[in-house]
Amino acid sequence: MKAVHFGAGNIGRGFIGALLSKSGYDVTFVDVNAEVIQALQEKGQYTVLMAEENGVAEVISGIHALNSVSELDAVIAAVAQADVITTAVGPNILRFVAEPIAKGLEKKGDKQSLVIACENAIGATDTLRAYIEEHVHATQLARVLETTSFPNSAVDRIVPNQRHEEPLTVAVEPFFEWVIDASMIHTQMPKLDDVLFVPDLTPFIERKLFTVNTGHATVAYLGYQKGYETIYEAMQDQEIVATVRVALQETGYVLTTVYGFDKEQQNAYINKVLNRFSNFYVSDELIRVGRSPLRKLSRYERFIKPASMLLALGQQPEALLEGIKAAFQFDVASDTESVELQEKCKASPLIDVIAEVTGLSKEDRLVGMILAKLED
Ligand SMILES: NC(=O)c1ccc[n+]([C@@H]2O[C@H](COP(=O)([O-])OP(=O)(O)OC[C@H]3O[C@@H](n4cnc5c(N)ncnc54)[C@H](O)[C@@H]3O)[C@@H](O)[C@H]2O)c1
Ligand SMILES: O=P(O)(O)OC[C@@H](O)[C@@H](O)[C@H](O)[C@H](O)CO
């Protein structure tokens, strides 16, 4: 069995590539980062460390790697031979990896394969599939779609930015969850150990995005305002913990009401998530967790979608608004989206910026509430 994984970064090496390898796949990483690719090519293996007391180290071996810029033909050939093609590059990068995937799928003949985007976004594989379809020749499209499944998925494991003496080593939290929408697989089911296949992904991805990621982003933005550097540090601040807890009660209300998740189980899930954020052995910079505020403040993302749903259910978002306010004020010179957001806020009336960034109309109640909060 062969797998090609685009994105040899934190989650690529620390979770998806490792799980594919442990499930018996011959894994080829594809990345634009020449240093990482060269190191993987030279060593053919790397270490995954569990970020916990006396955490074990696992060696992931037999790894191949290709540079997606200088070895494009080989990337396309690898995709053509792969049973499973995955990505963890960031939602904004999917458009760039679509072409080599499309060219590989064109070349594969009648081989069955799966393409799965492992990104923090609702319908990420749908997005990738749409880009891929733009690059597949019209005469090949029907065959490619017949022989390829494109299931959406949700991935959960905190893997911070980090530096080790051995640069390929990656420390990860022990917890992990990879959920795949089985109803979107019409080809042969893949062999993926420790993956949960579900008949409908929507509740799972929304529960993950609106609990883990809403909570994480709330801690990051509030923590950044208070001058902390890491999630762990911010989680020692009881004011922040209290706000994030209320924010997760707000999203929890949406999740239990709309998807029927059991209230007790949702509370246990929230507690577990907050414990994960408090892991002393994970040093996760607020700047990583808050990265790309324009994406995080967009219509179907971790703040605006649950806040809109809460309003539609007749409840008022309070703590979510605190997080949204802090996100609008996230001012980090190294983050291009943060810089763009701050420039927008200086150049245009706030109500226009809020409507543009959130994708809501200026008349929307939530826009008015965000404006009032920002002017508070
Ligand atoms: N780190 C986490 O805790 C975590 C957990 C769950 C999901 N995710 C999701 O996984 C995705 C990746 O996040 P990450 O934290 O691993 O980021 P990362 O920056 O560590 O890794 C992304 C990798 O993609 C590579 N890349 C960029 N452009 C590319 C291209 N055109 N072709 C091939 N590779 C390219 C980068 O060089 C980098 O190595 C994001 O969607 C993120 O939301 C991250
Ligand atoms: O990757 P992002 O930018 O969507 O969100 C930042 C973090 O919240 C995220 O990477 C988490 O660590 C991860 O989603 C945990 O599963």
TrEMBL record:
Binding residue positions for NAD(+): A3, V4, H5, F6, G7, A8, G9, N10, I11, G12, R13, G14
A single MF term (Gene Ontology): mannitol-1-phosphate 5-dehydrogenase activity
Domain Mannitol dehydrogenase C-terminal as annotated: residue spans: 200-352
InterPro entries the record matches: 6-PGluconate_DH-like_C_sf, 6PGD_dom2, Mannitol_1_phos_5_DH, Mannitol_DH, Mannitol_DH_C, Mannitol_DH_N, NAD(P)-bd_dom_sf
Entry keyword NAD: yes
Similarity annotation: Belongs to the mannitol dehydrogenase family.
HAMAP family in the record: Mannitol_dehydrog
Name recorded for this polypeptide: Mannitol-1-phosphate 5-dehydrogenase
Lineage per the UniProt record: Bacteria, Bacillati, Bacillota, Bacilli, Bacillales
